[in-house]
Amino acid sequence: MTDVRKKAYGYLTALAVLCIDQLTKQLALGSLDLHQPVSVIGNFLRLTLAWNQGAAFSMSWGGPVVLTVFTAIAVILITVFIWRLRNHTPLFFIALGSILGGAMGNLLDRFIYGKVVDFIDIGSNGWRWPTFNTADIAITIGGILLVIFYKGISKKKPEKDSEFGS
């Protein structure tokens, strides 16, 4: 498979994640009331509309402007990284695309609303994970896949050619 095709997988994954993320957020905005949980699987999985002005999992980190700039820089860097990267599996590019699409989804929220739409709420026995969204899921899965790939790459012998094109 050519590198161009593999890169296309990354960009198409990003586009699919962005579309799914924005669709699910619009459904949440249209059907959920702010901070009013709707049970899906008992108390374990609920849909609860919340606005997140912080970073991942509602952590405060630098304020909304800093987070918007940081996320925009990350989107640009990952886009360029996918374009320049060579000699990796399609799944590696899909993992990068998953992170890119999730970052773009949350960035788009910051541009439109000034904060991020969250609505997935899990927990039990009085403990709740911070509310999150499908973009966060995509970023997390992409990150885990990259760690797995990195561990696999680091066990291989280094190649003479650079990973990046000229």
> Helix/strand/pairing class, anyone?
alpha+beta
Q: Tell me the span between the first and last alpha carbons.
A: 20 Å
Q: What general form does the structure show?
A: globular
Content of β-strand? 5-15%
User: Numbering strands along the chain, what is their spatial order in the largest sheet?
Assistant: 1-2-3-4
Domain count: the total is 1
Query: Could you list the spans in which at least 5 consecutive residues all have pLDDT below 50?
Result: none
Please give the largest β-sheet. Answer: 4 strands, antiparallel
Please tally the helical runs, counting DSSP H or I stretches of 4 or more residues: 4
List descriptors.
alpha+beta; 166 residues; 4 helices
Please explain how this structure is put together:
The longest helix has 29 residues. The chain has a four-stranded antiparallel sheet with strand order 1-2-3-4. With 166 residues, it is of the alpha+beta class. It has one domain. The chain has four helices and four strands; from the N terminus they run αββααββα. The mean pLDDT is 89. Helix content is 58%, strand content 14%. Helix 1 packs parallel to helix 3, helix 2 packs antiparallel against helix 3 and helix 3 runs antiparallel to helix 4.
